Prior knowledge:
mainly alpha, 63% helix
Amino acid sequence: MSSTETAPTRRTSPRARWTSTDIGLIAVFAALVAASTMIPGIPVGALGVPITLQTLTVVLTGLVLGGGRAFAAVGLYTLLGFAGLPIFSGGRSGLGILATPSAGYIIAFPLAAAVTGWLAAIVIRRTVKYRAVLLFAAAMISTIVLIHGLGVLGFMVNGKFDFAKAFLADLPYYPGDTIKNVLAAIIAVSLHKAFPDILVRRVK
């Protein structure tokens, strides 16, 4: 090695394939989302759609696992609920939930986890400072655009609300989701510090 050469720096690379550890993480986080429904929700508004901890665990799954594995984990949870396991809020299950005002939120969960995870991977690969703030921003983007966006659509389709009424019905969920996203970002930063390879692989 010449005097002008330097030692290679550590870099990150995307995971090319899932390992048994990845499969285990997908199962664990699917179970975590399901377990979050065991805590009773707080019904809000005329349609009674409850405030639950699901959004916290859905967003946390994305922030920790990244887009693909988060989509798989929350998608697995959703499919098991559709198949009949009572793991939706209030112990509900089955395809009948797609006819309720909650349908938009349920459909949004895997998509929000995937988008949150995709944004989180960018944050983890490219930043060191202000990660908690950036992860919170990633969570809020997917929460507002997907969870609340599809939630409003669910109110309009199944609740027969016009857009203005559906938008107002969705507003009470914003304060709680903001707090949950703050908590999710803080927890995610701690997990990434403890397990640096959980989202991206370090390559020497």
